[in-house]
Amino acid sequence: MIKTVPMKRVVIIGDETVEYRLVKEIHDIGATGYTYYLVRGGGAMGDRPRHAEPGNAKIEIICTPDLANRVLEHVSTNYFGNYAMIAFLDDVQVIRGEKFGATDA
Amino acid sequence: MIKTVPMKRVVIIGDETVEYRLVKEIHDIGATGYTYYLVRGGGAMGDRPRHAEPGNAKIEIICTPDLANRVLEHVSTNYFGNYAMIAFLDDVQVIRGEKFGATDA
Amino acid sequence: MIKTVPMKRVVIIGDETVEYRLVKEIHDIGATGYTYYLVRGGGAMGDRPRHAEPGNAKIEIICTPDLANRVLEHVSTNYFGNYAMIAFLDDVQVIRGEKFGATDA
């Protein structure tokens, strides 16, 4: 099998204008890359049904566990109180791990 | 590390008109949120190559294992016989688990 | 719980023109389906900040471990030296595994 390195995939979904600002902040926190999607819906709206409502975006970051934690702490501290956002993470195996900050890639 | 709660991520990819209808049905089944993407291709078409064919969509739902099962049973029973759809799920760790129905979040 | 079969989810993100060509090559390698997204950003740009730069795409393939390996070997051999691409994989549980080449589905 091709060589891979374990990393975290962090996903943050929310209002497009907030997500756009968040891209810059995530860069300042230390993420060297991200993927940005325009989406509909947004997840976990509770009692605010937003089906078919436009204007949301999804940010996806592949990074080390430490950076994942810092990004999620930032989002939790600065956005979760006032914005309808969701955030989650899981494990992925990346090719060329050194691009993501792996020290043993 | 920031506190997380385990949830399921359910993905359903298929024809855009079917996916749009499915959003409403998934809401009725109990999902409080979803993310909806317009995509090309569609996965696992068997002998029907659809590369570069437009008109597909992807629904992604973060939810409890129980709700994931009910959504997939619904899709399997009502759509798989007649539509070129694919569905799969995996595990994610969410922030603010109470938004997704976690009882211990 | 609904019956599922373990498969790999392969993700390749890069320049849209390269990704478009890659779809054809992945088909020749044996993938019967894929999902194609237009995205912004692209992940792991190193010292080339491309925030808000358009023109990237993401290919997602659900397939057997063997096919996942062949696709990633192809991308690694033919593209990684000259293109700013990232690739990673993880595990998913699919419904109707026979669509993805599972022999015991």
The protein's oligomeric status is: homotrimer
| CATH uppermost class of chain A | Alpha Beta
Q: Structural class given helices, strands, pairing of chain A?
A: alpha+beta
End-to-end CA span of chain A: 15 Å
Helix content of chain A: 25-40%
Number of separate strands of chain A: 4
Kindly report the CATH topology of chain A.
Answer: Alpha-Beta Plaits
Regions with little confidence, pLDDT below 50 for 5+ residues of chain A: 44-52
Mean pLDDT of chain A: 85
Output the strand order for the largest sheet of chain A: 2-3-1-4
* Chain pair forming the biggest interface: B-C, 30 and 27 residues
Number of helices of chain A: 2
Give the ordered list of helices and strands of chain A.
EHEEHE
Name given to the CATH architecture of chain A: 2-Layer Sandwich
Q: Compute the number of structural domains of chain A.
A: 1
Largest sheet of chain A: 4 strands, antiparallel
**Shape label of chain A:** globular
Radius of gyration of chain A: 15 Å
Beta-strand percentage range of chain A = 25-35%
